[in-house]
Amino acid sequence: MSFTTIEHAVGGTRLVKLQRLAAHTNSTVLLKLEGDNPAGSVKDRPALNMIVQAEKRGTIKAGDRIIEATSGNTGIALAMAAAIKGYKMTLIMPDNATDERKSSMRAYGAELILVTREQGMEGARDLALQMQAQGKGIVLDQFNNPDNPAAHYASTGPEIWQQSQHKITHFVSSMGTTGTIMGVSRFLKEQNSAIQVIGLQPAEGASIPGIRRWPEAYLPGFFDKSRVDSIIDISQGDALNAMRKLAREEGIFAGVSSGGAVHAAIKLAEQYDNAVIVAIICDRGDRYLSSGIF
Fold it and tell me: Which residue numbers delimit the Tryptophan synthase beta chain-like PALP domain (predicted)?
């Protein structure tokens, strides 16, 4: 008799319909609940895939230490994946990450190194590469590793296509590493090139966990702007307002970037007739409680 393991619980998340927030439109807004993954976010998919593929190539082996720069969700997912596979994990992140994120990483056995908010993700990425050069571990490099978008091409995209009954007209996703939008866009446009792919970035001055406006020198290496039909700037206020409404009026408890995705999806629903819009709900809201945003 064989039984499944936690590794096989990654993916296969539900796609659900907004009941009230888009009821004033004649379009359908569907939400992909990635918080249902074992470590609680969409990042479970690429984190596990990066480790599995590195094992297959012989890049990492039993007893190795993995080092990664992260703003939160990828770090938690990598800490989980490393625990599943038996690797040591060092995560480098800005010190303004929520306590829940830091505690979750430590719960999975990861070692944390904090850089200042001013150093940010760019500083964390530089330190990770410096430590690798010093022989302190191996960097998977979520920002340039093609196994990141490949995870979404192999799983997230096909799931959305099937669950939407091939009717999806628009796909909305926040852009952090851009792995989700790159992988899903590639798959969906192979099925129907007319599907519109909309990326989200924070408006100037906004600070939304999981969404970035990258300086040109730090743009993820696999980002291909031709795979994104349009980019929407999301304000802090709009993201927070939609996030709170999502919990209070739909019963979907999610993070700030998910609020931004829902805000954008509703705006699209108001612009187009009979559209079928799928938005990624990146994670769960309990990861942000200590920040007081609810």
Answer: 7-283
Active site residues: 43, 257
Which one, of 236, 286, 267, lies nearest residue 21 by Cα? 267
Query: How far apart are alpha carbons 292 and 294 in whole angstroms?
Result: 6
Instruction: Provide the whole-model pTM.
Output: 0.93
Q: Is 165 left (phi over 0), alpha (psi -120 to 50) or beta?
A: left
Q: What is the pLDDT of residues 61-114, one digit of tens each?
A: 988 999 999 878 999 999 999 999 999 999 999 888 888 889 999 999 999 999
Residue 225 to residue 62: CA distance in whole angstroms: 37
Amino acid at 198: I
Indicate the DSSP class of residue 251.
Answer: -
Closest by alpha carbon to 44, among 11, 12, 70, 15? 11
Token output for 180: 């989700």
In order of 13, 52, 151, 262, 279, the CA distances from 4 in angstroms are: 17, 17, 20, 33, 29
Q: Which two tokens stand for residue 167?
A: 């009717």
